[in-house]
Design goal:
globular, 3-stranded antiparallel beta sheet, about 450 residues, alpha+beta, 5-stranded mixed beta sheet, binds zinc ion
Length: about 450
Amino acid sequence: MTPTRSATTGTPAGEVARVLVDRLEQSTVSARRLAAERYAIIDQLRQVAEAETGASWHDPDDLAWRDLRAEVAAVIHIHEKAAQAQLDTARRLVHDFPTTLDGMQDGTVSERHAQILVREATGLSPDWFTEYETRLLPSAALLIPTRFEKLAREIRASLEPEALIQRHQEALADRRIAVEAAPDGMAWFGALLSAEDAIGAAAAVTGIAKGLKVGDEQRTLAQIEADVFRDLLVDATGVTPPPTDATAPVPSPGARRGVRAEVLVHVPVMTAMGTSDDAAVLDGYGPIDADTARQLCADAPGFIRVLTDPEDGATLSFGRTTYRVPAELKRYLRVRDEVCRFVGCTRSASLCDIDHTIPWAEDGETVETNLAHLCRGHHRLKERGRWRIRHDPGGTLKWTSPTGHTYQTRPAQRALGRRTPVRVGAPPRAMTQWLLANASPTGDEPGF
Ligand SMILES: [Zn+2]
């Protein structure tokens, strides 16, 4: 790809710009080459792993494959889903679309275009690969990615129109709900809502879905969550029976099922006292304004207040209790971990198991230095014994992969409060008294 260039103006600034554009072009070509090299390496790594461990890309849920995927994710520092996509793309570029990989190697095809070409061919019969690539690839140097993607879909649909039906079925299996943070205390949950409404609503949907995941239910929790969301909107009677009295107000979905969201709000103590307007942090979202945080602390059932030190964000006290035993340690771990503690995982701690690092059966203790949240998948991976885990001071976990590489995961970091004192000379005694008056009762719950 060599853009046509007219002669420069000849001024010194024009000359500098010309040199910079040349360098930008060279650096873009280099990045494409390096990306091609990365895919080639990833695919070689896959072949070595498949030969040595019996892992197979045909079975992505197999634990040997998950070892490989977890290691790729850890070394590139990406989510495992993204690592799976890299492994898939690498294999298909090397074996199914080698001309595209050649194009990256010679700098004419960008990584983004190559990813689109591969992705849009998912499920296409191998008989069509050459035809698809031959018709689509020349446009990689001409069209920006969004238009290239549109063209890829059109070519794909023209080759195998009946496959679209199957692709939709596969896509449907991936249905789920998602909250997407937006600026200024807002978030998307199918609608642009205040962050606390969005997070609370999503937690309520999860609560209903968990209640339905019983017996021989075949759907995944993610699928049930999406179905609950749809039922509540499309058919309000689909989840729970309608009120017998037609004139009675329709209660909120959460109230109907007796489900109450449990969402943590980390509030700097001075903000809670009303003497500062430092931002609070809503779990699963991020910073929210002080007024909203104070309202949630005062009268929003289901929002659990976590008071934090105004200077370093350390947890001082938990707010109202909504958990039963052994609540105190569980809550501490949930605040400490926030998400699954495997490398790169973002599964919320509220959906994870609390794992004994040294198993209970092997005299592992039920103490914070031997406990960590792991999602179901990573719990199984750890129990398989090929990834080793060590607790370091300060809540850091050190993981050693099957190939002997080490990766660290740290406890949740919150940039709460200020690093300088909020108010010079703020009376410590007043704060102590306020804390005592507002602290939740502790030590009144049976231990383990
Ligand atoms: Zn995990």
